[in-house]
Amino acid sequence: MYRNILIPTDGSSNSKRAAQHALKIIDLQGNLIILHIIERYSIQPGVLPISTITSVDENLYDELEQEGKDILKEIKEYLREKCPEKYEKTNFTCEIREGKPDLEILKTMEEEDVNLVVMGASGRHGLDRVVLGSVTERVIRKSNRPTLIIP
Length: 151
Description:
Elements: E1 4-8, H1 13-25, E2 31-38, H2 50-82, H3 84-88, E3 91-98, H4 101-111, E4 116-120, H5 134-142, E5 147-150
Helix pairs in contact: 1-2, 4-5
């Protein structure tokens, strides 16, 4: 039934639980797409000289990209440990994209012809822990694909 599942992840414990749930329900030989999005934060112009801004921005991006790679690796290791038999029968695609998280998730859903999106109810950012995560909420509102939210 679900052969192509998307798991957006920020490395939070909620996203790990969502990934574990997705692995349990995916069809044999299905494809699990693990997606991490880098959202660049703009630096205020006029605070630093332009050459410094470019250097800081490039260094920050490199650090965020490495963090994303570490998160993807950690999620796969977590899944291997929690569901070893299902892990071996599942294909994995790991992607790092840059942009606004909800828009990148929606774009990936279309591009990868996803059957189901499995997300944690909130991520690792401050007030998102109190209510349904803002990224999760925006994806639910705009999605035309089934979306499963794991508390």
